[in-house]
Design brief:
5 strands, 43% helix, Rossmann fold, alpha/beta, 5-stranded parallel β-sheet, polyphosphate kinase activity
């Protein structure tokens, strides 16, 4: 745990205006036809889900599309590796937010033996060219690596074990991955070495303090996109129609209990 974690009241105070800016970004993306792709990667328990929730909880899911693909099917395993990710790239007026991405091959698949070393190296050599093509097609591509310390990862995993509200977050793979900290460190280092490019750099965020991390990431993300807030139209609620004789019917409505 960090020495001085941000309090929830302070966090909400800073988050509200940032979320208003995300709405402004959303409206600009819709109006301009911009295409934005945001990739979130990181160690287990690094807080990707919390960051994505903070980004998307006040915006439209029709514009901010969260992409969190399950394990590949047998058919998908037989396809070109990137094939199942391509349909989820953004079209005009969309922001695609990847909760893990094609970089699974450079991380969990490589470390846990779900692909061969040859496949991992081939991926690392080819993906910069693929990402150049994505960027040259007009997509704003942002890649974030969320970092967490060994001590904080241990604390978060133990919290999942102890808290019945979080136990669903704990998988057998998490437990296997936990023991392979330095294998993941080596895989991360090589991934960044090969894929940190001028057209698609990696941005690294310290997320030991989740609240500070979310604020820092959202602030940085907003600064990377050249959006211009649109002028807000003046909106006045119209007058509501007259009842014109309407009376509520005497129906046997099944009201729910009100224990609170």
């Amino acid at each position: 745990m960090t020495d001085n974690p941000m309090k929830n009241k302070e966090y909400r105070h800073h988050l509200e205006p940032l979320q208003a800016e995300l709405v402004a970004l959303q409206e600009w993306v819709k109006a301009s036809g911009a295409k934005v792709c945001v990739v979130f990667e990181g160690r287990d328990t690094a807080g990707k889900g919390g960051v994505i929730k903070a980004i998307t909880e006040r915006v439209s899911p029709r514009v901010f599309r969260v992409v969190a693909l399950p394990a590949p099917t047998e058919r998908e395993k037989s396809q070109m590796y990137l094939q199942r990710y391509v349909p989820h790239l953004p079209a005009a007026g969309e922001i695609a937010v990847f909760d893990r991405s094609w970089y699974n091959r450079a991380g969990v698949e490589r470390v846990m033996g779900f692909c061969t070393e040859e496949q991992a190296h081939q991926f690392l050599e080819l993906i910069p060219t693929v990402e150049r093509a994505i960027v040259e097609s007009g997509v704003i591509l942002l890649k974030y690596w969320l970092e967490v310390s060994e001590e904080e990862q241990t604390r978060r995993l133990q919290s999942r074990i102890d808290d019945p509200r979080k136990i669903w977050k704990l998988s057998d793979l998490d437990l296997k991955s936990y023991s392979r900290w330095y294998d993941y460190s080596r895989a991360r280092d090589e991934m960044i070495h090969f894929t940190d490019t001028g057209w698609a750099p990696w941005f690294v965020a310290d997320n030991d303090d989740k609240k500070r991390g979310r604020l820092n990431i959202i602030t940085h993300l907003l600064g990377q996109i050249p959006y211009e807030p649109l002028e807000r139209p003046h909106i006045t609620l119209p007058a509501r129609q007259e009842a014109d004789g309407y009376e509520p019917p005497k129906l046997p409505l099944h009201w729910i209990p009100t224990p609170y």
